[in-house]
Specification:
- It comes from Sporolactobacillus putidus.
- The chain is α+β, with helices and mostly antiparallel strands.
- The protein is about 55% helix and about 10% strand.
- It is built from 14 helices and 6 strands.
- A hairpin with a 2-residue loop joins strand 3 and strand 4.
- The longest helix is centred in the middle third of the chain and has 30 residues.
Length: about 325
Amino acid sequence: MTGTDWQAVAGREYRLQKEDTAHARFFFQPLHHFYHRNLEVLADMADYMALRMGVPVCRMFRNRENQYVTKVGGVPSVLMSLPDEKRYPSLSIGAALAEFHRRTALQDIQYFPESPVGGRVSEWINRMDALGKKYAEIQGKEHADFFEQSFLASFPYFTGCAENAIQLSVDTFIDHTDQEAAVIGHFRFSGLESLYPENPAFWVADDRSRDLAEWLRILAWTRSGADQEAAAERFLDDYEAHFPLTDQLTANLFGRLLFPLSFLECCERYFSGSDQQDRQLLEETIRANEEKAGACESMLTYLTKRYAHRFEAPEWLAAGGAR
């Protein structure tokens, strides 16, 4: 909600100071968009970053009742402001992400009970088990639609990737008793648009490999051959120049990238019931997952070379992949 819309609500529900409204661009963020619900802590972190550290971050404002949540058109929402759009640093994506992670390292994640730290493997297992049941169900059908046929053909490969990722994660947890500190990451890191501006609604308290894997997955889908490896090398070099990775994090990074998240989410969305237009998009997405499997293997092979002897990659990837 922008322009006169937010002004009408803000004038009735908020006491905004002149310094808040002089150059600010306001909007209402629906509460259900927030990954974490501890708005007090998120707001404090955003204020500190914006006012003390100069990070371009969206700030959150309290209403007249000293609460962050206000119903706007019946939707619980949070009034937020965009930062000065002129504050764009010259850092590369890798360096800027590393600096953000370094500045937001968390000593304690008790304020963020939704954090996936510690529960990622069990979540992966449960979701893949549910998809396995759907696979068995469709195998028994007399007629399968296009998506289901694609799913039947590709599920064995992607479930193999998932099993390897889960085993690596379990082994890594056993091998490293002191777990990595969480940082503030992003629900889906997508490059500069995630960093400028930062939006507390999409922050996730997780280990650093989350954002790194998301960006490498994008590079695997959008680059190929030597260009793909060069882009990954540049990104990781820039990141590690500011915030080096530990052995545990290199294993976590590899495991996250190996886990077929895009395939899983695509299938979950399709089987949960979709309209015709959405189904067409999902048919294209599952086909893209099949087509990009080889490119993702190339990225994983690159990581095994870059971080040789820091974790144990599956033999089939070390031998050159399955695609």
